Amino acid sequence: MARTFDDATRRNIAELCSAFARLAPADAAPTLKRAAVAIALTEADDGSGAAFLLPRRSARLRAHSAQWALPGGRCDAGETQAEAALRELHEELGMALSDRDVLGMLDDYPTRSGYLVTPVVVWAGANAAIVPNPDEVASVHRIGLDAIELEDAFTFVTIPESSRRVIRFRLGGQHIHAPTAALIYQFREVLAGRNTRVADLEQPVFAWK
């Protein structure tokens, strides 16, 4: 069932994020580069409820080209994770938001490529202008929260290269993998009031570089 996009939903999600028991970074965190992504909440395309923004990266990028990824990137020196997520959201999608729009943060996710990624949940509003940066973003999609709450939205498979399960988020006829799938999955669990951990969910081998 779709969540209406209104102040009540904003308050509810903020309360759920506040109640989420975020884990402190692992001891190995100092060896990883800090990064942050935004789970930016807005209204679904058809006005049917709440959604989050999921861009597809430009095919011209040198790293992870044409992949699905939440808006985000490496934290600059002196930046908090929330500041980095908001800056990247502005650089990639042209959205100017502030600390007042931050609803909470989820667990840090360590990537195979050497980053510790912090998901920052942000209320982008219904009328926020989205102006994708063509150098970084090929397209932007609004994914309804009801889509990630479906029972079969996420699947888990094994690969010979790892003992950890690979998570996949099914979007249409495609599969989106970790880290993006893991972060979206944890957000889905937070919406359900569950403290589900995702750091042990694996990425596919092509994303290890």
**Count of helices?**
4
The biggest beta sheet, please?
7 strands, mixed
The amount of beta strand, in percent, is: 25-35%
Q: Compute the CA-based radius of gyration.
A: 16 Å
Which stretches of 5+ consecutive residues score pLDDT under 50? none
Structural class, by secondary structure, is alpha+beta
Order of helices and strands: HEEEHEEEEHEEEH
Mean pLDDT value: 91
Anisotropy-based shape:
globular
End-to-end distance, in Å? 38 Å
Number of strands: 10
Roughly what percent helix?
A: 10-25%
What does this structure look like?
This protein has helices spanning 7-19, 81-93, 145-148, 180-191; strands spanning 33-43, 50-57, 72-74, 102-105, 109-110, 115-123, 137-144, 154-159, 162-171, 174-177. It has 209 residues and is of the alpha+beta class. The strands form two sheets. Strands 1, 2, 3, 4, 5, 6 and 7 form a seven-stranded mixed beta sheet that branches. Strands 8-9-10 form a three-stranded antiparallel beta sheet, covered by helices on one side. Strand 5 (109-110) and strand 6 form a beta hairpin. The protein is built from four helices and ten strands. Residues 32-171 form the Nudix hydrolase domain. This is CoA pyrophosphatase. InterPro entries: CoAse (IPR045121), Nudix_hydrolase (IPR020476), NUDIX_hydrolase-like_dom_sf (IPR015797), NUDIX_hydrolase_CS (IPR020084), NUDIX_hydrolase_dom (IPR000086). Its EC number is 3.6.1.55. Its cofactor is Mn(2+); Mg(2+).
